[in-house]
């Protein structure tokens, strides 16, 4: 479903080059529940961004849903991201002027879903992440962990095939983190949703069926 | 050194009122290493903001360094925050156009420190948090955990009397988190720096000498 072959990613800063990813080979099948672990700065977010087609490799090949992403037009890539992928950002990336409800609803508007269906889905999703009392709050009227949960709700509300979750429990207490993981485990079992986590949280690692360790841009085998 | 008496904090959202803090009594002495724990949304960040004089209670009294903060002028409050308090924000709040070095240096400029001394302190601090190779990176050229460490370096570089740390290890792997806690423990032992953490991380709780649990705006005793 997703495959990376000899993928590298370089960033340039003035004269220096940062080798964020140094030759990644990775295969991910449908329905997997995978965790990517490694020290701060080791390349986890970079890798997730490439898989999610939010960024492109410096070299190497990435296939998503059996398509070489470097050969897709912007329009097709955009559709792939909206219809197939749900992304939970490490920094949440919520829209400041929209409420928790509106932020969560946004991807469904892009999909052209009708109002009645959107309302049902958004309410249920926000309830699943424990935020039904906070639907009218904007991000700056929410706690850190509440913002994280809006980011989670927004990524899951389209019922995507692939969920890329960048440190989804970082700002959550143990109990809330477990509730989120149980929700994701259920989606994985019921819909065969593929989950790829980047995490420092041992609870997430325990839920994962496969763990890849990344250090300094390489996956340790 | 810090005392809160019957402190409440209300937020208004349209017609509804959110009671973020519901009568907090708390005494913190110099040199303490305290952790504040509780579920997402329970009031931890709100409490830290009040102690750090970044916000004011709806009712109740807050004393910092034996002064009633509601009686201080803006100028005195500002000096209190700059000279005495170091704040590590849950969302980092780095200045996007400044590099890691410049973000860390900023509080020393406010203190009017000379260039040679600033240079020595900033370099040492960024080295302590493992970022000497990243001093020229701006926030958007850093990983989540690297940004968190810049926020930490910036809060500690003035060698403040009181450090308010809002989830300082949330985006760090275990090893890096421990290194940060060891640094803070050393400052606490050498300088009697007072540390107040809000955290979901059991590692931080283990380092703390006192733990307060907060649920729904109240401290459980
Ligand atoms: N500006 C605001 N307007 C309305 N409600 C607010 C505002 N800021 C915070 N709140 C609410 O106050 C409560 C406490 O928020 P706070 O940020 O202190 O929680 P927290 O314990 O730090 O949570 P977390 O662990 O998720 O960071 C939350 O329920 C939040 O929704
Ligand atoms: N735009 C950029 N320019 C230069 N270097 C960058 C840029 N973005 C990321 N980097 C560097 O690439 C490396 C990998 O970053 P990445 O965000 O993937 O790490 P990470 O494993 O997610 O870390 P964390 O656990 O701290 O979130 C880091 O050393 C970072 O400084
Ligand atoms: Mg990251
Ligand atoms: Mg908080």
Please describe the topology of this protein.
2 copies of one chain form a homodimer.
Chain A: E1 2-13, E2 16-28, E3 33-37, H1 44-51, E4 59-64, E5 67-68, H2 74-84, E6 85-88, H3 100-110, H4 115-128, H5 144-156, E7 162-166, H6 174-191, E8 194-198, H7 202-207, E9 210-215, E10 218-220
Parallel strand pairs in A: 3-8, 3-9, 6-7, 7-8
Antiparallel strand pairs in A: 1-2, 1-4, 4-5, 9-10
Helix pairs in contact in A: 3-4, 3-5, 4-5
The complex binds adenosine-5'-triphosphate (ATP) (2 copies) and magnesium ion (MG) (2 copies).
What does this 3D model show about the protein?
The structure is a homodimer of 221-residue chains. Chain A is α/β, with parallel strands linked by helices. Chain A is 37% helix and 28% strand. The first copy, chain A, has helices at residues 44-51, 74-84, 100-110, 115-128, 144-156, 174-191, 202-207; strands at 2-13, 16-28, 33-37, 59-64, 67-68, 85-88, 162-166, 194-198, 210-215, 218-220. Chain A has a 6-stranded mixed β-sheet with strand order 6-7-8-3-9-10, with helices on both faces. In chain A, strands 2-1-4-5 form a 4-stranded antiparallel β-sheet, with helices on one face. In chain A, α4 crosses α5. Chain A is globular. The two termini of chain A are 21 Å apart. The mean pLDDT of chain A is 96. Chain A binds chain B through residues 11, 13-14, 37-41, 44-45, 90-91, 134, 136-137, 141, 143-146, 148-149, 166-167, 170-177, 200, and chain B through 11, 13-14, 37-41, 44-45, 90-91, 134, 136-137, 141, 143-146, 148-149, 166-167, 170-177, 200. One adenosine-5'-triphosphate sits between chains A (11, 13, 18, 20, 38, 40-46, 90) and B (134, 137, 141-146, 171).
